[in-house]
Amino acid sequence: MPRFGETIARLRRAKGWDQRALASASGLGLSTIGRIETLASANIQPANYTKLARALEMSPEDLDREWRATRIEQTKGDHGIPLINLAPAGDIIDYEEFGVDSGQGYSYLPRGDLEDPNAFAVKIIGDSMMPVLAPSDLAIFSPNKYPSEKMPDGVIYFIRFSPDSRYHGCTVARAFRESDNHVLLIKDNPTYARRRVRADEIIRMSVLVRLIRDVKSG
Fold first, then answer.
1. What residue spans define the domains of the chain?
2. CATH C-level class of 4-67
């Protein structure tokens, strides 16, 4: 499974650098780089995350895609739709809190007639999207169904936030584009508050295209 520290080490070695070179390029201490390369998740200050990304000649969003579950690695000779992680239908939660963080899929679901090669599945936790999505449901999302400028309002999306946003995590919600700069996130369960977020805080919105209901959840 991809780990944050292993990803940093891989990107560093690809540039022909040792840890001292990355420390110099990023402005971080050598001991800090050593510690970072042992981490399973990005448990570091957002400012240091940005310094690492820039030293590696990447944006923070590009680095985020390199190691987090939103970087979906499809295997040659398709095994199906990868079940990549849990997804919070509730409060926004960071992936590092889940204990699973694999872009390659720890299980696969039948593809059927779904053509998007980048479609992925998540297991729902939380009750914010009841009754449409219930805990333990398997929800399949497509990042490619709509071009970003044509994404319809009011449908359910898997939403991934930038590592330097206020939320630094992911959620499942209905999204409404209020303007070019802001998106309104609404949960079906009215006990959950609406959230108005900046569009530049969102890395990716993937639309719900299929649901597999856990019979135990009703």
1. 4-67, 81-216
2. mainly alpha
Let me know if the fold of 4-67 is the same as that of 81-216: no
Q: Which residues of 163-195 are buried (b: 16+ CB within 10 A; e: fewer)?
A: bbbebbbbbbbbbbbeeeeebbbebbeeebeeb
Question: Which tens digits make up the pLDDT trace of 104-132?
Answer: 455 788 888 888 888 888 888 889 999 99
Q: Is the pLDDT of residue 146 over 80?
A: no
> With contact defined as beta carbons under 8 Å apart, do 57 and 85 qualify?
no
CA distance 13 to 10: 5
Which tens digit of pLDDT belongs to each residue from 171-216?
899 999 988 889 999 999 999 999 999 988 888 889 999 999 865 5
Report CA torsion sign: 193, 194, 197, 201: positive
CA 167 – CA 93 distance, rounded (Å): 8
Q: Give the DSSP H/E element, type plus range, for residue 50.
A: helix 46-55
Q: Top-level CATH class of 81-216? A: mainly beta
What's the pLDDT score for residue 125? Answer: 85
Please name the amino acid found at residue 159.
Answer: I
Predicted TM-score (pTM) of the model is 0.64
Per residue in 148-164, pLDDT (tens digit) is 667 899 999 998 887 66
